[in-house]
Recover the amino acids of this structure.
């Protein structure tokens, strides 16, 4: 019997923050929308990524700050209560072993309902132009048809590279790391990027006696300014975290499931852990998405233009699956663009109005790495600016010399770097490394995106005594 197709204006596959936002913006624009989700509404970010990782890191950072502040240090004499930290993390991620996938996504599902977005639980696949097949949890099938658009927001999963023995060793990915019930006695981390560094620090502080981070790149956080790696490496060493960079992994051995695991490097060194975290990057969740039915290659990122349009006037994508910037805030930004553009095009309105192009995706991206010290950046690094052949001048300043920073904790150590396009006289990038700099990043984002001329920025007077006064010092060092 022919299946009845259910029609919506917009079908979104994938219920992470970008998927939710794309559907919500389309609704706001007057369209009907359905969201197809095969695990949990809220996506990786809510249960296995941003939220749990930051819930684990915040107590670590706070205790470290308290220990650096005379008067407070005397009051904080014990160690972290790891159980309490894990329990608080559990509350943030709605942990519930009785629910599918171990978490309760009821709050996010109710939000969808309140927004007028239908939810179809199941695995969504493209089935040709504007059609989506859904395999429901009870192995049933539903067919959805889109009047205007299908949005792919299926995200990414952790990459497990084809290293001999790795897959068989059943390594931790970010999912197990962020949802761990306790810190393993010995943790080996393969990958010194954001996930590797954040996890290494959290687990060391939460009880791991040995933590080793291994990366083939010459330094930690290779995409950030080199000073970030310098300060983070010093902090890791002080915290007793071993770092091995510039050497590739050769193989992994775990003879007994659940037993100790050995990471063997190309230079013959071996590191033994109770767990091995693989944090070497992400793979788009497009292998089983029916991309071939519309002429796209499965397993690849979905290419889009700045209106988030992928193909044929009806297929859009946003979030990690585009491979543009694997960050929740950038995915949500892309989603707002996609939803607004789809609504405008459906109504025959101009589709290039305010906010309808994801122009920030290229050179204006902000990011915070929540290690201690935090690493925050907006816009381009010096290297990226030079690659774009911009006439660049770099200004560096020691954050610890700023009154606001020195008041924060004793012996504050940190760094600020401003990258200036000298021809236009504007900031094209800024990086801050230090305790409590996360909230400083948005000021840099505003300066970079606003292309605020330096002699105008001079009149944005930072309050005394805050860390923001570093802006004044950077501008003075530039010559203002
Ligand atoms: C450990 C870790 C920490 C992070 N911390 C931060 C941070 O602090 N700040 C930040 O900005 N970013 C952070 N990120 C990145 C952030 O998690 C991602 O950028 C964000 O989750 C991307 O959202 P998304 O919706 O594109 O993908 P996802 O969150 O992966 O969501 C995709 C959704 O699609 C569903 N899905 C996939 N395929 C199908 C299908 N065929 N049918 C139905 N449903 C499907 C999935 O189940 C999932 O719910 C972190 C990542 C990791 C791994």
């Amino acid at each position: 019997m022919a299946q009845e197709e259910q029609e919506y204006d917009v079908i979104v596959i994938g219920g992470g923050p970008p998927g939710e936002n794309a559907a919500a913006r389309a609704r706001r624009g007057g369209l009907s929308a359905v969201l197809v989700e095969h695990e949990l509404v809220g996506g990786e970010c809510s249960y296995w990524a941003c939220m749990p990782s930051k819930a684990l890191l915040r107590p670590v950072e706070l205790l470290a700050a308290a220990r650096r502040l005379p008067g407070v240090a005397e009051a904080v004499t014990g160690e972290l209560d790891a159980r309490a930290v894990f329990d608080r993390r559990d509350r943030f991620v709605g942990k519930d072993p009785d629910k599918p996938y171990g978490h309760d996504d009821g709050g996010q599902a109710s939000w969808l309902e309140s927004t007028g977005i239908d939810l179809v639980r199941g695995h969504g696949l493209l089935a040709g132009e504007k059609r989506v097949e859904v395999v429901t949890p009870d192995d049933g099938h539903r067919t959805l048809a889109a009047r205007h658009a299908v949005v792919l927001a299926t995200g990414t999963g952790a990459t497990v590279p084809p290293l001999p023995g790795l897959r068989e060793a059943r390594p931790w990915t970010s999912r197990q790391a962020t949802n761990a019930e306790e810190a393993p006695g010995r943790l080996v981390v393969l990958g010194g990027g954001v996930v590797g560094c954040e996890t290494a620090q959290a687990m060391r502080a939460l009880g791991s006696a040995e933590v080793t981070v291994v990366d083939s790149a010459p330094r930690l956080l290779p995409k950030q300014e080199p000073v970030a790696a310098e300060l983070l490496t010093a902090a890791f060493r002080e915290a007793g975290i071993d770092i091995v960079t510039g050497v590739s992994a050769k193989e992994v051995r775990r003879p007994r499931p659940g037993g100790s695991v050995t990471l063997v490097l190309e230079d013959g060194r071996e590191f033994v852990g109770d767990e091995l975290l693989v944090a070497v990057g992400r793979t788009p969740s497009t292998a089983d998405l029916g991309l071939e039915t519309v002429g796209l290659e499965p397993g690849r990122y979905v290419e889009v233009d700045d209106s988030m349009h992928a193909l044929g006037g009806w297929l859009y994508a946003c979030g990690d699956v585009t491979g543009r910037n694997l960050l929740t805030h950038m995915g949500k930004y892309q989603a707002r663009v996609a939803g607004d553009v789809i609504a405008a095009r459906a109504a025959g309105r101009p589709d290039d109005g305010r906010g309808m192009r994801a122009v920030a995706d290229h050179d204006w991206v902000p990011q915070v790495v929540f290690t201690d010290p935090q690493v925050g950046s907006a816009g381009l690094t010096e290297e990226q600016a030079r690659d774009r052949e911009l006439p660049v001048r770099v200004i560096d300043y020691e954050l610890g010399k700023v009154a606001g920073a020195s008041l924060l904790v004793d012996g504050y150590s940190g760094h600020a770097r401003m990258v200036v396009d000298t021809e236009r006289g504007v900031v094209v990038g800024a990086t801050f490394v230090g305790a409590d700099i996360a909230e400083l990043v948005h000021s840099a984002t505003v300066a970079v995106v606003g292309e605020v001329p330096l002699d105008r920025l001079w009149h944005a007077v930072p309050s005394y005594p805050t860390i923001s006064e570093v802006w004044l010092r950077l501008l003075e060092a530039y010559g203002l």
Summary: The first strand starts at residue 5 and ends at 13. The chain has a mean pLDDT of 97.
